[in-house]
Amino acid sequence: MKDHSYLAVAEFLNEAEQEKREVIRITEDYPDLSVEESYKIQEELINMKVNSGHRIIGSKMGLTSHAKMKQMNVEEPLYGYIFDYMVVPSGGEIHMSELIHPKVEVEIAFILGEDLEGPEVTRTQVLSATKYVTPALEIIDSRYKDFKFTLPDVIADNASSSRVVIGNTLTSLNSLNIDLDLVGATLYINGEVKACGAGAAVLDHPANSVAVLANMLARKGEKLKAGDIILTGGITEAIMLSVGDTVSGQLDQLGDVSLTVKE
Ligand code: OOG
Ligand code: MG
């Protein structure tokens, strides 16, 4: 792909999000698109959002659990960015009319108290730099037709990021009685259990996900900063949402997080 095409592809994906319309995969037109090139498209997309007045509040890892990798048929983790306009308060609403074909995931989010700079960040360093952990629901809304993509497609599309609900309870790690890999997570929709798992599903321990992120960001000279919110990735497969759904994510010792789907 030629350098000037990165911007054009980023514009195409940004418009798809704004117009709430699914589009064909970019690898249909660029079958040789590499992971490195797809992050360049993502960078253009992120700059475009920043230039239009949106603020980055954190980042996310995706495809960090086998359940997610299997569901999406992609075997490698990726990262993306979370913006202020994506945040919904716990107990709040998302609107189907603003989205394409949203799915929900239950995740463990980290809030950093110190910067983390790769390339050799370890799980132990992540844990000592972490101020709080909190339950989160991530609403992913791939801009691609039928929610189908390859790794470069989904990287360019800012890892399907769409909405994020952060729990109201912030827990410091030293007040937990169990390690985060043993934290059970259950996703309820309309009172029914739709998926469940444990923190260990995420790269053996959710803190590993933050370490991998810090180390990936180091490749382009970026670091994770104190105050950043980091979503570590869906513990279970993602579940399709419909108008009228009430969603609740419950995590051992971390508390609950919920949302309602409106028209
Ligand atoms: C890509 C984003 C995956 C996660 O938590 O694994 C993700 C997708 O499945 O659309 O956010
Ligand atoms: Mg996710």
From TrEMBL:
Keywords for this protein: Lyase
Residues of the Fumarylacetoacetase-like C-terminal domain: 63-261
InterPro entries (UniProt xref): Fumarylacetoacetase-like_C, Fumarylacetoacetase_C_sf, Hydratase-Decarb/MhpD_sf
Signal sequence range: none
Record SUPFAM superfamilies: FAH
One protein family per Pfam: FAA_hydrolase
Tree of life domain: Bacteria
Alphabetized Gene3D superfamilies for the sequence: Fumarylacetoacetase-like, C-terminal domain
Keyword match Lyase: yes
Keyword presence, Chaperone: no
Protein name per Swiss-Prot or TrEMBL: 2-keto-4-pentenoate hydratase
Gene source species: Bacillus songklensis
